[in-house]
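Input.
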Amino acid sequence: MGARKRLMAEKIKEAKKTAYFASLRDVPSSPRKMRYVADLVRGMEVSKALATLKFNSKDAAKDIEKVLRSAIANWEQKNDRKAENGELYISKIFVDEGATLKRMRPAPQGRGYRIRKRSNHITIFVDAKTNEEK
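Output.
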């Protein structure tokens, strides 16, 4: 590894020490369905987002709730204390496309229809509110 690459890698590593995030990879649903639920909670306080996800009827809400709880636990682990009510908020949430499984389904007259079984990766960043933001 060259010197420039090593410096950049160290800079990224330092930035990750102050970032509090969690990710879930290869969730077996399409990214479009997952982004619909992710847009509901983007920028919300954590307690309000958890309540929204708990009572959402979409199946994707369960996966996002799981990742959000993990991100909260990561924040608490790095700061050695429990998060107070209204202290944390979702600073960033994004859903990336994962691997696509390509399958064939039999169709009339000897043809085959292609089925794409999509997957996605969820990443959630949480951050504490400062006194000005409260």
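Residues 60-79 form the longest helix (20 residues).
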